[in-house]
Amino acid sequence: MNVDNFKLSKVFHDNAKEYVTKPVIAAKYQPGMESGFLVHYSNVGIKGKEAIIHEGIRFFSSIDEAWAFINANEKQYAKENDVIVEMEVIYDKPEPVLHRLVKDAMNQSGIHFQFGEQSFISDESSKYEFFILENNFGRNCWIVQEMNGNIRVWYNELEGETFFGKGNDIVYEKMKNGDYIKVAV
């Protein structure tokens, strides 16, 4: 098992079932399965001036920590023309994630944001590999653990996502008696 992998919660293990087409254990996301929360933030435009949009993401262990960060309403800092500039920001609501600290997030399979020169100094997106489990768009996702221990997230409404086989509807659940039945996801 990959010891550097995402840490899964007891809620996941209590709800996960074994599926096959490609053998995995999986569970549809529900609150409590996340490893933490992310907060996305961007700067407020300045009247009469064409503003460069700066963005950032911060990760927190709990929703309370994420809300404390938002409620502190601290200004953020970015570099513009090699000068550090203080900016007022707008914070999005916290989103649950599976996340882990990695040396090179760009070479991982999770979500990557590249804000580049438009990132805030406090941005952590390049330090973490992560999967957003639920957002404002009502994303329908499953947490999947393969038999080799690899963990990922499957967004079954996206075309081309085939973690359960050759099509989004080809999923078989392993029953207690060892038989497999076709199930809808």
Any key phrases for this structure?
2 helices, 5-stranded antiparallel beta sheet, 6-stranded antiparallel beta sheet
Order of helices and strands: HEEEEHEEEEEEEEE
Task: Give the fraction of residues assigned to helices.
Answer: under 10%
Q: Detail the poorly predicted runs.
A: 165-169
Mean pLDDT: 77
Percent strand equals: 35-45%
Biggest pleated-sheet summary: 6 strands, antiparallel
Measured on Cα atoms, how large is the radius of gyration?
19 Å
Counting DSSP E segments of at least 2 residues, the number of strands comes to 13
Instruction: Report strand order across the widest sheet.
Output: 11-10-2-1-12-13
**SS class:** mainly beta
Distance between the termini: 26 Å
| Overall form | elongated
Number of helices: 2
Could you explain how this protein is built, in words?
The protein has 185 residues and is mainly β. 9% of the residues lie in helices and 35% in strands. It contains 2 helices and 13 strands; from the N terminus they run αββββαβββββββββ. It has helices at 10-15, 63-72; strands at residues 17-20, 24-28, 36-43, 55-60, 76-80, 83-87, 89-91, 95-101, 128-132, 141-146, 151-155, 172-174, 180-182. The strands form 3 sheets. The chain has a 6-stranded antiparallel sheet with strand order 11-10-2-1-12-13. Strand 10 and strand 11 form a beta hairpin. The longest helix is centred in the middle third of the chain and has 10 residues, at 63-72. The radius of gyration is 19 Å and the shape is elongated. Mean pLDDT is 77; it is low at 165-169.
